[in-house]
Amino acid sequence: MKPMLRLILLPSLLSAGLFLSACDDSSLINDAGVEDNANAVMVKDTKNVPTANLSAEEQMIYNLARYRWTLASATDNNGQPLKKLMDINDQVTLSFNQYQGQNSISYSVGCNMANATYELQGNRLTTDAAMSTKMLCDDLNVAENSLNEIMQGISQLSLTEDNTSAMLTQNTADATLMWIGKLTAQAKYNSKGETVFWAVRAATTPCVDNSTQPCLQVKTVNYDDQGLKTSEGEWTEFVGSIDGYQHDEGRDDVLRLQRYELNTSDASTASDIQYAYVLDTIIESTVVS
Q: What is the pLDDT of residue 92?
């Protein structure tokens, strides 16, 4: 039997979003609009939100959720680099998620994914204690602990944007983090994605059309409302990439993806590519011996 590296396959992960909660099974928001809550400001769905009617805090939440953030720099109070984070800064990520009744952040150094709810008052971010997956990260453990300590508590945010990217400065009591933002697929494609589940084999095979290029081997996986697997498709070659997914030939993965239909009339889009795929989360990983 293959040893299980990580298993976080839960009904709430299948039917809802990325946020892990022991007591809440909130589903992803589908209706546009704004909901005010005593504990948090909530923007429902980033598609077609009437941004002109948002408060400053709601606008900030809306803008933060439009990007996937990657660490650009991390310094302590003396302006010295936080070496453990800067050595791997290109794999340190942050995202702001919007769910029914609460807002949450997700962050990672490339191993476990931590999730926490947050409140925003003006530019002041207050983050609650995080829940996290429990993989052993070996040499990433120190960086992961450092990031977790920085992210929990109170920080001040400063956001600047242009047409396709953004810069977020986060000042905490002990550190200053600067994040570079790249538009999420939903913001980029101006539409909501369709949730699909794929199993991905650890081993790749040469692509049929180009034997010098490796192709992922994938198959669809279907689940019922209780999170139980109901059917699987056939293994097939996948020519393309999955935004946000780093394939590891030492693991079999099951992925939850968002699939976005491309505008094939766009001259910049290859006519034979119909969809863009974006990683939502890895719901199961198995070490391959």
A: 96
SS3 11: helix
Instruction: Tell whether 177 and 42 lie within a shared domain.
Output: yes
The answer on 135 and 36 residing in a single domain is yes
Residue 146: DSSP 8-state: H
Last residue of a domain, one of 161, 184, 207: 184
Tokens in use for 35?
Answer: 């909901």
pLDDT band at 185 (very low <50, low <70, confident <90, very high): confident
Residue 66, pLDDT above cutoff 80: yes
Q: Is the pLDDT of residue 239 over 90?
A: no
Number of domains forming the structure of the chain:
2
In three-state secondary structure terms, 12 is helix
Q: Report H helices in the chain.
A: 11-15, 56-64, 83-86, 141-151, 185-189
Residue 38 has pLDDT above 60, yes or no: no
Three-state helix/strand/coil letters over 16-67:
CCCCCCCCCCCCCCCCCEEEECCCCEEEECCCCCCHHHCCHHHHHHHHHCCE
Query: If you ran DSSP here, which 8-state letter would residue 81 be given?
Result: B
242 is in which domain, residue-wise? 192-287
Answer yes or no: do 54 and 149 share one domain: yes
Q: Is residue 94 part of a domain?
A: yes
Angle, CA 62 vertex, CA 59 and CA 66 arms, to 5° = 135
Domain boundary pick from 150, 167, 184: 184
- Give the global pTM: 0.60
The answer on pLDDT for 277 being more than 60 is yes
Q: Are strands 175-183 and 165-172 parallel, antiparallel or unpaired?
A: antiparallel
